[in-house]
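P.,

For your records, the input lines for the assembly:
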Amino acid sequence: MIDLPARTRRVSGTRLLDLCRERGIESLVDPFMGVPMHLSVLKRHGLAVHGGDLLEWFVRAGEGLVVNDFTILRDSEVAEVVEMLPGRIYPTDQFRAWEGVFFSEDQARYLGVWYANVHALRSDGQTGLAVLGLWHVLCHWLLKARHPDEMIDVPPSELAWYYIRETERWVVTNGKRNTVRRADFATTLGAVKADAVYFAPPGRLGARRIDARVWMWEAWWQGDPYLNVERLFRDTVFGGRTSDDGSYERAVGEVLSAAGEAPYVIVQSNAKEAERFERLVRAQRAQVEVVAPNAEETYIIGKL
Amino acid sequence: MTVPVGADGALGLYSAVGDAFAGRRLGFGRRRAALVARFARHRTGDEAAATASWTAGALAEIGLVAVVLPPDAAPQTRLLSLADAPLHGARIVAALPGLPAHAADVVRWHREHHDGTGIPDRLRWDGIPADAAALGIAHAFLEAVEDPAEPRDPTEALFTVAAESGRRFKVELVRAFREFMLGAPTGWDVQPGADVPALGEDAALAGLAGHIDARDPATAGRSERLAGSAATLASRLGLEPARAARLARLLALGRAAETVPHEAFDPLSRFARDHRAAEAARAAELAAAVPGYAADAPHLAASAAWHEDGNPDRYAAILGLVLAADALPPLDAPRRLAAAGGTQFDPEITRAYLAGLGAAR
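Structure tokens returned:
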């Protein structure tokens, strides 16, 4: 059975909102955005937000929730995503490699259908909403495989419908230009100017410990169940050579240097690691403030 | 176990106001607090966690006081505004001195869902603090038990919670909740006596009234003006100024509901009287629901009565007068209040108020 580590970093948009409001920050960029819920929350509250990531499905999700101001999916369009369309030939065996390992035959077939339907959508916004909504279905199925008797059975198309609808409820406009890009941190930070650069540094072996639900969805989006996402990170700053303290700190330092022009840099850590990041931020910023609402969230805020 | 003194004072009042804005039966917040504190003890055996859970359970919906929606708000406007209620609640709780620091975070994230579809942050999995997730389960359970349309017995309510296992709620936490409930099928809503600190009553009440006042630009800051006027007048009449000020602040509770209409009537008209009577009754109902304020309820209820109706309650008469005086244009107030003395207002109290105005000039 696949390992589903429940530990995930708490990236709270409302907490960031409080930090930004207290400092008059009006725009923020996250070069390692991941699932961009926090950017969506900040956008909803009027901040201009920008994000970047190397995994394409994160960027697609960002196009749905961060960049997209108005586009949603009508009922007929959701139906065209979640069900097989008559007369169309689907690659139903595209994800057969996962069948019997992670998913049932029916689920694997639906993954193929959804892959085809989502790639046929007409706009980036709609595609992003569908990608994010369907990701919840994947997570649900994997969790259900672990707890078959404790979670209710929901037909795949119904579950997909529910999660796509749920996702698109959060499409809002903030009257500002918000962007996402598939790029490494240096490209992202070079491309946009913002009042603050926020990032939550991945763990030292973060690139090798990517959650199955994350890499599987990238594999789904790319249509390749054998996709190895580790290679995407191998040559990046937090890639293969950050297993020792020195290399890791150099990697964080590189990101901080790239964020050098932003008036604020906000590094999210926890009580255990805060000291290390505070030292690294102090090396680059004149004024440093540490905000620690609880043991799991420590924000090291450097000001120019 | 200690007696939850804070629960019977201003903390209880905040909880009741949260219930009122959420449209729930009064006392829902306190029952939710009892349930989640007991569940926290069952899960962790940690008294501090139980106290924080109790506090968060009592105040979970207080953030609704900061959500102002027009009656014809579009569904998405409504959704987005309500999505911020836990955030507002967390800010209110964090601003109350003496409460467990963790309680604000529990309030902030108690409506998050395990699958990442909750509010306000759409946190997922273990990104949601366990105490907040537990409060979400307790809330859903109690909501099912007290559903006005279809109340369920606890066993049925457990099924309602279990149906959301893996979606709204973490599977392991639902399992723990089921074990907890099956282990103690009765008495789960009895106050556990968590060691909740008492709030500074006056400051907390002023803060609560201020939040309610701020919902309408026409009433912003009104409670403090009324409290000042009522205290001065009470002192002039040989009554307790602090009590009059406290009652004046409690009047704001009359507007503790999502659908209270904007008050634009002439304060001395018959229309205003009906409106005032409804507000006074609501304020009295809320105060009566909290032991520490129950004695204030009769004064609040009587505050809408006219002198000619034979209202002997002098505190209530003060409230009625200062409320009308605050709503009248300053230049008109002396003449119109004097004219209403003996009919709407107690003549002695009216004279004392007008004398005070004269002295101030």
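Two observations worth noting. The domain at 201-360 of chain B is CATH 1.10.3210.10 (Hypothetical protein af1432). The mean pLDDT of chain B is 92.

Regards
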